[in-house]
Amino acid sequence: MLSAIPGCKGPKPHPTVNTSTDHIHPHASATPVAEPAESAGRLIACRDCDLLQQEVRLARHADAHCVRCGARLYRGTRTGLTTMLSLMAGCAVLMVVANLFPIALIEVQGAWSQTTLAGASLALWQNGRPLVAIAVGATTIALPALEIALLLYLLIPLRLKRVPPGLPMAFRLVLLVHPWSMMEIFLLGVLVTLVKLGDLATVVPGASLWAFCGLIVLFTMAASSFSVRDFWRWADSAGADWEGD
Amino acid sequence: MASAASRGLASCHVCGLLSHLHAQHEASACPRCRARLHLRKPGSIVRTWLLLILAAVLYIPANMLPILESHSLLENQSSTILAGIILFWKGGSWFVAALIFIASIVVPMTKLIALALLLITVQRRSRWAPQQRTQLYRMVDFIGRWSMLDIFVVALTVALVQVGALASIKPGAGSLAFGAVVIVTMLAARTFDPRLIWDAADYQQQEQEEEHG
């Protein structure tokens, strides 16, 4: 009843997808094609307009875009499994450090006051806004931490050529959680607050703020180089078997 | 140009794998990541409308009720989102005022109007500018989360400013309504299926092909 599309055997496909070369390094044409040969020619449907198209081979760091609506269809190989795993391990360490120390301190007439990452959410809870507190805590701490933990859970075994139990569910959860982690927006919030209170008090960025900045840099690097197809290629080479294979 | 749906093919909304989907197996799952497969997001138009109406209703208290309340022995002050922006502007922090104005006023308004426009044109089976409408959808989906900025500023302000027994600063009821607007509009954008924009054009083309063929 269900089958993945092998080779070109589908219905009449639309000729090709265009390949954006925006992100390709000037010498990219000389680099070898990073995509395994068998994936070229497979059928794919555009996520935004559902147009059927044939996959093409991509150079490293190139993106394939839909010929009709311009949506990104898929990405070529970006980073290796080891690089992605290192980025996630770095994120995990910085996440812990970012939660240990104050993120900002202020001084008004000799009285100091400070807050940690969790303190922002806690203050809302203590002042009668539990729902807003949960939303802030989830988007700045719980969900980013969950995403990092899930990726480590997936990538460490894959690096060792093992398939973690529940891989499909963990993968789906990562994609579900991702849009709700808002650390970079929170960082902007910290900067706005420091400007806002700067007129009334002496404000000092806390030690955790630097760890938090580092965390956002690593996290953004990982997110922008995460390719769903790379992930499934890693899973395949670790021996994950899915029904359609 | 053929859509995948017209050939009975469903692309997984999570991992993108294309699979054959037969009408009698509505509850099929993606063979690779096991996500539910659908040709289109189920009930997309109705669900998006409901979320959008909810967001529009919440948008009123979000702007009318105070987002921050400060109490002291001498005076009680409460400020709405707009009042906060005006305060920044008068205080000379134009950049911050503009930033919060965009994140808290422009972005939610744009989202509400854009999603309503997309829903109405889809329901009328409009074939007007599908590419631009798809781009509009992608923009709405991308910018939505940045509206959380003001909620984070409120949280940090309350956490940092503990003036003591004589005065206090508290998050107002507006913060709850505004936070809800941000989350509900994000959900509305995820519930809308942009492929519906293209279905009208695809349908028309199919009919023409049948006439000529």
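qc> The two ends of chain A are 14 Å apart (CA to CA).
qc> done
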